Amino acid sequence: MKKFLWLLLLLPMFTIGQDSIRVDVSNPHATIYTHLYFLQSDSYEPKKAAQTILGLSEEKAIEKAIKIKQVLDGKGLFVDVNKIPTNPSYKDSIGYSSYFRYVLFPQRMPQIYLEKTGESWHYSSETLIKIEGLYKEIFPWYVQKLQKLIPVSGHKKLLGIELWQFIGLLLVLVIGYFIFLIVKRIVFFILRRIQRSVTKNSNIEVNEVLKKLAHPISLLVLVAFIDKIFPSLQFGLTTNKWVFLGLNIAETVFWIYVFLKLVQVVMRIYALFTERTHGRLDDQLVPILDSFLTGLVIVIGVFRLLVLFGVDASTMLAGATIGGLAFALASQDTVKNLIGTIMIFLDKPFHIEDWIEAGEVVGTVERVGFRSTQVRAADTSVYQIPNSKLSELVINNKGLRLFRRYNTNLGLRYDTPPELIEAFVKGLREIVIAHPETRSDSFNIEFTGFGDSALLIMVNVYFKSLAWGIEQSSKHRLHIAIVKLAKELGVDFAFPSTTVTIEQFPEKEGISIKYDINKERTDAVITKVVNDFKKEN
Length: 537
Known about the structure:
55% helix, disordered N terminus
């Protein structure tokens, strides 16, 4: 009798325990928990799980609820119910801000999501439509056919895994290996054809990079094949979770490798293009672009890996934005220099090896980096000019001149006869015309005035070469020819002097030079000097 009384007392408590888990679709957390809880082996009540499906008959709703769970399990998508919002008026702030929706896996399975209908949350009509296609994709028709052909012995377990699953996994790996080899050859062939059509030639270095690029692309095809077939082996949620996590990590790493090699290919092709251009500033852009694109690929790849490990993308982006802002404020000079670098490459005020004047700095441009530009002065010292300042300076680019102008004045003695002045000017003009490094169609050689101690002959010529060293050697040859002409003609160059004339001593004779102004002689001298100059050059 006492046992019966105790039974009557404990029966309500058992009843309360059984009803403690009830159907609840008032918010996203409750709906998903209801769906998954009532499809577990120890709490299997598919009719209750089917109440998360709206607008279908009970039989159809049960079928859809089971298939949704099988798709999630087949893809190894573990639902962490603790992260699901409990707000009945939840709105997706990423892509569905105007709708009451909750997407379980926005990155890997965006087709499955909840919608609020009235005051309740149910799986969306789009999910119910697409679940059939997802189920057939993960569990193809031939899988069920093959499972029916598996004998009883094939279902025996070894280390908790059935024999047919071992055999299936082995077949997947063998077939995947052959797919990898075949795809690698095909991809390399296609990449090489594309490269030849773009560059119009075959380059050994580019071919080597293409071979390395074909390898990860083939691995990506292999990963896609395993990702497609592995759910059919039905290893269960826990195994699938870790397998697909590994596949996703491998896929991301392979994509990073592919884009890194792609950057190398693009930069190598761009380098070949810049080698055919006149300026060398494009050549300097190659390593800068290479570093920038490589860093960009790595950063995006790391972000992708962090997302796979469960880091919230919105939080990560917000943190990156705040961190980037703080970093920018802390390194304003670096940002200014980077902007200055971009402006230099866009405007191209100079090229590598150009002789420039920028403020107090005069020299040859040797390198343009991310932060600064390196200029080597005539005394071989090196200036490092921040690009932010260089982009604001007035730059006189001597390297963009069409010709190098050379202007000087030759001073002749005041007692030089007019005939010799004319002969000397005539000889200078013919020397300039005969000089291989001066413009024969643009020069000025004239008797321009009277100096304090000399008669001034202006020599204004233009050298063809823009190189500083060639200009100096050209000047040297011009000066030697001028000196020889003056010597042969008997013309003396003046120097600062004072002449005192004494008229009270007639017995004293002056020391004035006697000049030979014979025209035939001067013409012969000019012809001889010019011919000798032509032979020397």
